[in-house]
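Apologies for my clumsy wording, but could you write out the amino acids of a protein and the tokens describing how it folds?
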Amino acid sequence: MLLCAMAYLTVLLILPLLVLLQHVIRFLTNRSNALKTGLPFVMSPVDPMHPLWVITQNMFLPLLKRLPFELGRFTRYNMRGWVYDDKYKMHAELGDAWINVTPGENMLFVADPDAAIDIFSRRKDFVKPLRLYSKFPIRLNEQLVDIVSHMK
């Protein structure tokens, strides 16, 4: 019985460490990829698209913003709707193009209209990550059409 309890305890201790290690490895890989671009970048220890962060950010943001030495600065560009409040400030600080390095994805932000047109016209070169869209129901448009037609 004691051996079984120790095995469970070991798994409970090792599993979070493995998840943390995977998180750190992906973060360092994404940072290395951002360095190769030559663009300025900011680093964030959280993925703003991760479901756990989306659900809990309102609870943690006030605490993280109060961290000393600007350690909570990443909250500025990792909360829902930050671009509407920030407008052009991040681009004024970092330039027309910059990257948000996260453990999940590197996110490119572009303020140059010509570059944006080039990015959107070259879909095969700038692929949107499917994992971000596969978690949401695909039938949303059909439901909206049904709701609108019902309202008429």
Notes: The chain has one domain: 2-151.
